[in-house]
Amino acid sequence: KARIHAASRPRPAGRAARPAAAALIEALGAGEQAFLRCWARAQRSDAPPTADKVRLHLDIDDQGRVTAARSDSDSPALDRCLQVVARRLPFPPPGRPAAVDLPLMFR
Q1: DSSP secondary-structure letter at 88?
Q2: First vs last C-alpha separation in the chain
Q3: Which of 61, 74, 80, 105 shows its CA 20 to 30 Å from the CA of 42?
Q4: pLDDT bracket for residue 76 (50, 70, 90)
Q5: What CA–CA distance (Å, rounded) separates 20 from 50?
Q6: Neighbour-count burial of 57, counting CB atoms closer than 10 A to its CB (0-12 exposed, 13-18 middle, 19+ buried)
């Protein structure tokens, strides 16, 4: 059965505001089952992922909404699905725009 693990601590990206680590972990947990469904679906696609480690970059606005998401997956199906799930992740308002890189490990 596939599982998702944070490959390492979530890393804030660039100079934008940095959401608290606890909020990042909570949001990641909220999306865990959906991320796993993305992985399972991508495995059945025409271009399944070749690596089980994926970095997901998120831009978060001052209200806590994910405004942009992208991954470094080589699978278009996994990339698209992760973007959709990421845009629904619940973040507390950071008060100013923030960016974060979430390392995901699928096993």
Answers
A1: T
A2: 8
A3: 61
A4: very high
A5: 31
A6: middle
What pLDDT digit, counting tens, does each position of 21-39 carry?
Answer: 777 777 777 888 999 999 9
CB 34 within 8 A of CB 57: no
Alpha-carbon Rg for the chain, nearest whole angstrom, is 13
Tokens of 57: 């970059």
- Beta carbons within 8 Å of 73's beta carbon, 6+ residues apart: 42, 49, 51, 54, 79, 82
pTM: 0.77
45-62 pLDDT tens trace: 999 999 999 999 999 999
